[in-house]
Amino acid sequence: MPLQDTPSRYGLISRALHWGMALLFLAQFASAAAHWALPRENALRETLWSYHVDLGITLFVLVLLRGIWGLINLQRRPAHSGALGAAAQAGHAALYALMIVVPGTRILAAAGSDRGLSYLGMTIFAPREAEIAWMQAPSEWHGELGWILALIVLGHIAMAVGWHHLIQRDGQLQRMTS
Ligand code: HEM
Ligand code: HEM
Questions:
Q1: Closest ligand to 154 CA?
Q2: Nearest C-alpha neighbor of 60 from the set 96, 28, 100, 92
Q3: Is the beta carbon of 88 within 6 A of some atom in ligand 2?
Q4: Per-residue pLDDT tens for 71-130?
């Protein structure tokens, strides 16, 4: 299988990023769901929440790399035609935008906070003496935007598996699988 994308299929690197990140997003949404649904002292909540920041930063770095790889491959990627194709492209663009904005809001807030930010034990931003208010403001939407991302992912899976694979049987799913 080629490393790069071709007009008929996504290549190895796009697939590794797509499926690897799909698994990591599942773990990230599990952590967010536990944070939302379970009481504070719950052991499962603490375990799932313990990796939320490190995994969130990892996903942020991966989506930037994936975006660059997508742009490099833009001319040879599988095409989307017709009205449904345009809707699929708009859906993918929304997924990319939220995959950047959701972790981005919290990373921005941490950069302007009096607590700083560490990634896997390394200091990324040292704590500030005074918080910067405009850097905190967008993070109020972090959770809501995160849940909107989860809903669009569900719609994306329903379209890929339900519509394309089970109803239309048009081989679109195979562009990412075989
Ligand atoms: C793509 C990556 C991420 C996703 C999908 C995501 C998703 C979410 C969601 C859905 C919630 C709401 C949970 C609830 O309702 O209780 C949440 C909360 C939170 N997340 Fe993330 N997150 C990501 C990355 C990050 C990063 C990078 C940080 C820190 C730098 C972070 C810090 C927090 C904090 C502190 C909360 C609790 C306060 C709040 O709801 O804003 N997250 N996250
Ligand atoms: C069971 C889960 C999933 C299935 C079955 C699935 C299926 C697919 C398929 C078949 C394609 C190719 C579509 C085409 O060429 O029109 C695709 C592309 C895409 N998927 Fe998924 N997907 C899943 C999970 C996810 C998740 C969790 C995300 C992001 C959070 C995501 C984001 C994307 C994006 C942005 C594309 C556009 C191509 C790219 O830039 O990689 N997918 N998906």
A1: 2
A2: 100
A3: yes
A4: 999 999 999 999 999 999 999 999 999 999 999 999 999 999 999 999 999 999 999 999
